[in-house]
Amino acid sequence: MSNFYNAFIGRNRDYRAIATELLEILGNRQKILDIGIGTGLLAEQLIQLKPLLQITGIDTSTSLLAQAQTCLGSQVELYCQDVCNLELDQTFDAAYSRGGAWAFIRDSDTFLLASHIQDIDAIQQSFERVAAHLYDGGYLIITTSNANHSKLDKFDGEMSFERTVSKNWVDGEQYLIIDYVCHKHESITEHQRVQMRLLELDYVEGMLSSAGFQLISYQNDQYRIYQKGGDK
Ligand SMILES: C[S@@+](CC[C@H](N)C(=O)[O-])C[C@H]1O[C@@H](n2cnc3c(N)ncnc32)[C@H](O)[C@@H]1O
Asked: Does residue 122 share a domain with residue 27?
């Protein structure tokens, strides 16, 4: 399914606009960690707009990382790592997750965290590992994703890519279930199901606070910006 990622996502999201907004938030912060970099679509735009940025990307998917490597070459350092066990010999000015390991999604008049990491302790550990890799005053930016609604895209006469989204409660825990289905001539050629843990905003902010982060701003409801400890 990674082969279809750019074709589907690239036409549904304006990465240039996201990069421009993110750069405004980052200000003069230069050393940046992309958590769940995927195929590198956002990092590519960031570097085009600001070539001096030093971006390191992590992801658990070797196939997506291979595409990122092809797209970004040596402009970005890439590591196959799970953010829960993040271990890089570097410290960053800021980290962001744009629909990576975690994202916020709108839920009526509030937000939920949608996390690829399912276990609460592991989510807590992921926040702590990020904090351990940031300077004091460093930012953790988590974007709001619009990928939580169903969608059908037809590429040409024969191929279509469908995303179906539903919510599900299991033993008192809430999950987002996303089915990606690729059709060729009406037959299914690929199907991938992604399950994400959903957590209430207040609860997540308690977890982030335990990891040393405090919310300093949310911009257009699109970017929630947390800061580690005091000012740098
Ligand atoms: C929807 S993709 C987004 C990719 C990219 N950020 C973008 O904006 O196009 C989510 C990415 O997060 C990665 N991911 C999920 N859980 C992760 C984890 N625990 N640690 C690192 N990456 C993770 C996935 O492998 C996938 O590449």
From this structure: yes
Does residue 210 sit in the same domain as residue 110? yes
Using CA atoms, how far residue 159 sits from 11, 181, 188, in Å, is 15, 11, 10
Q: Which atom of ligand 1 is nearest to the CA of 84?
A: 19
For ligand 1, residues with CB inside 6 Å are 9, 36-38, 41-42, 58-61, 64, 82-84, 98-101, 116-117
Question: pLDDT (tens digit, 9 = 90+) per residue, 152-207?
Answer: 888 777 888 888 999 999 999 999 999 989 888 878 888 989 999 999 999 999 99
Dist CA 109 CA 184 (whole Å): 38
- 109 in the same domain as 79: yes
Task: Tell whether pTM > 0.70.
Answer: yes
CA of 64 to the centre of ligand 1 (A): 9
